[in-house]
Amino acid sequence: MTAQQRQKVLVLYLASSALDSNVKGWSIYDGTGKHRYTTGDAVGDGTGSSDLEAPYATGLDALLDGWRVIQFPQLIPPYPGEEYTTSFMKYEFIFEKLEEV
Amino acid sequence: MDKQHLLNNHQMANFVARGFLRFDELVSDEVNKAVMAEIDAGGIQGAPSGTPLSECYEGSSIRTLLDMPEIQGIIHSLVGADPLFDHDAVHVREPNQGSAQGMHADSIIDTRWDFDIQIMYFPHDIPLEMGGTLLLPGSHYRRVNEMDIARYQNMLGQISMVCKAGTILVLHHGIWHCGRQNKTDKKRYMFKVRLNPQEPQVKLWNTNGLEEAKGGREIHAGHKDENDIQYILAKGEPWFENASGRLEIVNRIKQWRHITGDDSFDAHYWLSRLENRPSSRQSA
Asked: What is the number of other CB atoms lying within 10 angstroms of the CB of residue B194?
């Protein structure tokens, strides 16, 4: 990374472990300082009934737009006794893009 | 308690499935104004944790609110006739904020089928630019510890509490939520109180018609009767992953069994299949 480049990080939560599955949630961190993204900043009309404008429809669409994947979620078997519990979003893919500043 | 003010089967199933119930403009303008005046005067006094709710807020407009038959019915249906006061707070979001609160579940990781509720009360209008509390329907059974989930900025299906004054939101203790950014030049206020049940939370609501609403043994048969409890419990949220979304149905079935005392209840055969043990029947 040169002194004139900064990292943007995109986190996509997908419907399955497949990179081309649908986006269910997302977060963005912008190292260029141009935007400050925050919780609930894509709330739509607030009712939860209308589709939010996700940055991409699938993980693959992010690749097609120039984002590089820097982390795939591992597939970890459920711990014994915890097979039916739910917790964090399982399919968290992390992408980066370098931008000139 | 007059049954007309208790929650019905449909509302209870929605609470079990989605982790919240919303009652728009339930509280009168008179009470809203009285509460705002108390907040401005810094005068809402709770009680020591563990105090019966009936002994809290004497002389306060919050007592007037809690004594409304509709609010009493909601409380009775979910946590019994006289739950314990846990804590309260007036949450304030300052004007023109640069960022929102991180997504979180309150308190600490809490895996009980017995559940607390939090009543959120919005005493003034909340337009979209003022934020509103953000909540994620159906997130309440996910085992997370408080701000572990603060990196989740946006999830499909999230709801922002854009509402009129006097709106009440009732939450399961595990629901993911946060205070959204307030982009106006006015402060935003929300009063919340957490309540702990003192009695088993079994059939505390208006259970008229419960047997009929259970539905039959059809396997995800595509019948879409929105009053059918199985349909409500098996309906996914937009943010659910394909596989974990099925586990959420199992969580809801277990919760429904817990609050009805009916261990034979199932939705679309998801648990009956797993509980089939022909070998143990043979050896018995």
From this structure: 20
